[in-house]
Write a structure and sequence with these properties.
alpha+beta, YjgF/YER057c/UK114, RutC-like_sf, YjgH-like, 60s Ribosomal Protein L30, Chain: A, 6 strands, RidA family protein, six-stranded mixed beta sheet, 3 helices
């Protein structure tokens, strides 16, 4: 079995250690990023929804940067939202601000009932620049 090549941002929040998961795994030229939430350094949720969504993107971008990538390298996005009808108008402008230029990645949005105290989560797969594994 191949060894997992875990990627951690420079300043990881406490959830990775507390829940025992890696922020991302690099494999065969791709980066598989765990769902990122608007967690503060101590792992607690940012209470303001717009700021929580932005912090989720900040955490995501830190993981991507640690692998030598950026959001421009993202090819697949999955969003998880509690009560999407109620929060969409707050979430969408933050997404657009962080989305970058065309061509945009594909996206799947899913309404969920539980995100461990969070309201929004973003999970992505990125093609690493040059297809490099390391």
């Amino acid at each position: 079995m191949a060894k997992r090549d875990a990627v951690f941002p420079a300043k990881p929040h406490a959830l990775y250690e507390h829940h025992r998961y890696s922020p991302a795994i690099r494999s065969n030229g791709f980066l598989f990023v765990s769902g990122q939430v608007g967690a503060r350094e101590d792992g607690s949720p940012e209470p303001d929804l717009g700021a929580q969504v932005q912090l989720a993107f900040d955490n995501l971008n830190a993981v991507l940067a640690a692998a030598g990538a950026s959001f421009a390298d993202v090819v697949d996005v999955t969003l998880f939202m509690i009560d999407p009808d109620a929060i969409f108008e707050t979430v969408w402008p933050v997404l657009q601000h962080n989305w970058g230029e065309k061509p945009f990645p594909n996206i799947t949005a899913v309404g969920v009932t539980w995100l461990a105290g969070f309201t929004f989560e973003i999970k992505v797969i990125a093609k690493l620049p040059g297809g490099a594994d390391a």
